[in-house]
Amino acid sequence: MRRHRVVIVDDSPTMRAIIRVALERRADLEVVGEAGDPLEARTCIRETRPDVITLDVEMPNMNGLEFLDRLMRLHPLPVVMVSTLTQAGAEASLSALELGAVDCVGKPTGADDGSFDTLAQVVVQAAGARVSPRVPAPAPTPEPKYQPGDRMVAVGASTGGVEALMTVLGGFPEQCPPTVVTQHMPANFTTSFAGRLDRHCAPRVAEAQDGDILRPGHIYLAPGGARHLTVHRRAGQLVARLVEGDLVSGHRPSVDALFNSVANAAGPDSIGVILTGMGSDGAAGLLAIRQAGGITIGQDEATSVIFGMPRIAAEIGAVERQLPLHRIARAALSASRTPVRRNA
């Protein structure tokens, strides 16, 4: 069994010790170094050559985000942000994810904190992530005269999804098809992420509210936490519903829960898109969309941070078209205007 080498970067010796204990509970993780600030981290990384780094945001000598930006441009490595679950922490973590961090977790608050297990699992996943030197992405150029057809779009993503969603949804025009999105993300983060997407994208982006009528020009993001975002048909209109329930495919909100509801409510009027992510959430639901007559698109391996969810979806026959990230928005928009073929 291969052991993934980890460096912990945090200015608090107590927090470094807590994180070390959390990580070393797993036999496949080995903490090979610690650093109290980014300057120490540079030396530690050179000497230990880790597979993955955990990184705090607020540190002396250099802000964690500034350090991350330099690292991803000059010496890219998988990075997991360990942040406070506050509004400021959410904003900083989202900035880190845009800069190339693989994932973020809430900072543990004590020895019995449930995020310990999550932290170790995320670090293992991050060790296998695809990272490359960061280069500025071209500005999206939405089609200015686009008019939506009769279809809606459903998108699912997990690890690496923040950057992927910024790219895909940033390519949507102001009058995009009604679009629903589930991104695996902590509860406190989705409000900030919706606001960030809204500022970045031409359409209106907001967290979904129970009972929202799905309208063109609007993107509805699943709130993190205790409910699944689903879609239902009511009086001939498609409506967002936030449904309490158990984990589905290991997640809440779940991409499978969203996609299965879209297959049932919209069927051939739907387009399903599965993006980068660890695990299999969304694969079965995407297959349901395809079997219901909808159009399905999967992100390709070369542009996925983690080629897990799209890979499994492709293996079970759920993906009709596998595309690089920069081509997905245009493909979804084109598909939305394809005439719907209905069974006689």
UniProtKB/TrEMBL annotation:
Its main location: cytoplasm. Residues 5-122 form the Response regulatory domain. Keywords: Chemotaxis, Cytoplasm, Hydrolase, Phosphoprotein. Gene3D superfamilies: 3.40.50.2300, Methylesterase CheB, C-terminal domain. It is found in: Cytoplasm. The modification 4-aspartylphosphate is found at D56. Its EC number is 3.1.1.61, 3.5.1.44. The active site is at S158, H184, D281. The keyword Cytoplasm applies. The keyword Electron transport does not apply. It holds the Pfam family Response_reg. InterPro entries: CheB-like, CheB_C, CheY-like_superfamily, Sig_transdc_resp-reg_Me-estase, Sig_transdc_resp-reg_receiver. It catalyses: [protein]-L-glutamate 5-O-methyl ester + H2O = L-glutamyl-[protein] + methanol + H(+); L-glutaminyl-[protein] + H2O = L-glutamyl-[protein] + NH4(+). Phosphorylated by CheA. Phosphorylation of the N-terminal regulatory domain activates the methylesterase activity. PROSITE patterns: CHEB, RESPONSE_REGULATORY. Residues 146-339 form the CheB-type methylesterase domain. Belongs to the CheB family. HAMAP family: CheB_chemtxs. Involved in chemotaxis. Part of a chemotaxis signal transduction system that modulates chemotaxis in response to various stimuli. Catalyzes the demethylation of specific methylglutamate residues introduced into the chemoreceptors (methyl-accepting chemotaxis proteins or MCP) by CheR. Also mediates the irreversible deamidation of specific glutamine residues to glutamic acid. Contains a C-terminal catalytic domain, and an N-terminal region which modulates catalytic activity. This is Protein-glutamate methylesterase/protein-glutamine glutaminase. The lineage of its organism: Bacteria, Pseudomonadati, Pseudomonadota, Alphaproteobacteria, Caulobacterales.
